[in-house]
Amino acid sequence: MTSPTKPPHGERCNGCGExxxxxxxPLGYGLFGYWQGPCSxxxxxxxxxxxxxLVQHPEVYRMANTLVHGRVRMVEAALLLIxxxxxxxxxxxxxxxxxxxxxxxxxxRSPEHVITRALKVWGVEVRRVL
Length: 130
Description:
By secondary structure, the protein is mainly alpha-helical. Helices cover 48% and strands 6% of the residues. The radius of gyration is 15 Å and the shape is globular. Helix 5 crosses helix 6 (71-82) and helix 6 (71-82) packs across helix 8. A two-stranded antiparallel sheet has the order 1-2.
């Protein structure tokens, strides 16, 4: 079973999972306490691709928070915190940095209070990841 090739930095995500195999996002770090991958929440899905288990099954990773906040809110917070829909933000090995994508990411970063609220939904200590 082989995953699709990682797309270039800034291109659309194809579910290859290489980003999560290499290192954790701030949400993963806050939950699991380590930065270097692979992430414990990386889950295989159909067609040799991967998905974030924190998005797919938040109740597996934080049942109490899911009961308090609801599954939809947990999923929304996870999507925000993993940067879903923004493009491939994993710049691995000798891959060139996509400056245009970097500028776009910096210009469209969610406000800190929104990120803080999402981390709190997950029960993650904010100062640990910000």
